[in-house]
Amino acid sequence: MSSVWTQARRAARMNPSIIREILKVTEKPGILSMAGGLPSADTFPVDALKAACDRVLSHNPREALQYAASEGFAPLREWVAARVAALGMKVQPDQVLITSGSQQGLDLVGKVLCDAGAPVAVETPTYLGALQAFTPYEPLFASLASDGEGPRPEALAALPHDAPGTRFAYLLPNYQNPTGRVMSAARRVEVVEAARRAGVPIVEDNPYGDLWFDQPPPAALSSLWPEGSLYLGSFSKVLTPGFRLGYLIAPPELYPKLLQAKQAADLHTPGFNQRVVYEVIRDGFLDQHVPSIRARYKANRDAMAAALREHLPAGCEWQSPQGGMFFWIRLPAGLDAMALLPQAVEAGIAYVPGAAFYAQQPDARTLRLSFVTLTPELIHEGVALLGRVLAQALEGAAQPTP
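^ that's the sequence the OP posted. Answer follows.
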């Protein structure tokens, strides 16, 4: 039966998130899930949020529940501008656009900067949600050769800048999703200089920058090239993702079009949510709250590192992250993380196969493990299960076929 609906060409380029599809499977009882990119719900400041809701509804109920400015709640924008000064950025509040999560910021970037057939540079691998956000606008992804610190400067230097030039390089310098890697200060200088020489602006995404374990990351890429950088931040990992609250910091020449795209998308991010979050953070709450998250996640990181050393078979490769939420594992030759996932789930452990994080030429031997939502004891149990699945797969691969 024919349909009366004709979908846009870009709709064919929209695909479900493999992570969210996996999460549906892992909701079964008894599955130890290391698949999601969720923060630990035990870190949500419920009492502080409850008290802030009461204050907002007591003091400014009409304003909080009314339509609001598309740019965002002015005191919150001022707070963001002051906060990023610690990252070396000099920002005016009128450069800050409050978004419905940093994911909306990625969509706005795609709408304003991507054209069909124009290159967009991404790390190898990169955040799956960014690929999903940009893909409907039909860019040509250029995968930057990367190492343990992120993209290599020579890869940025080689990007095309003749028409259609590379619109931007999307980079996650701090505890990257999915690899957990962090750029050194020296690499940041080299990357920005290479991008500047190539005439390729930078979209810097920093959802994990506050989640450092032993020392904070170096200054933001955006601090090194303010006029050529756009910065994305989020409250999801340090407060709660349920409020869907992020922000975008743009150069003055780019801000008006991003604002217009925001207005067309949803008019504004919920004003009540913005006021509640500002009420929580206005007096330095994060300076007391975030260290407790770091301590919790660091203990979990240590537990997973120990479990990986104990239980994963020889030939597996990983680096222990200095912050963030993820381990990135490369399996021995001959193993396919996607093909092994059903066996892992059957055994009681779930992960995200790494192939989905590649714009081009996926590495089937990679997978991502989250260490923040399970206890250290359950982390040890889950990694032991994973180790058994991998050992059995290696044993089966080693047996000669008749």
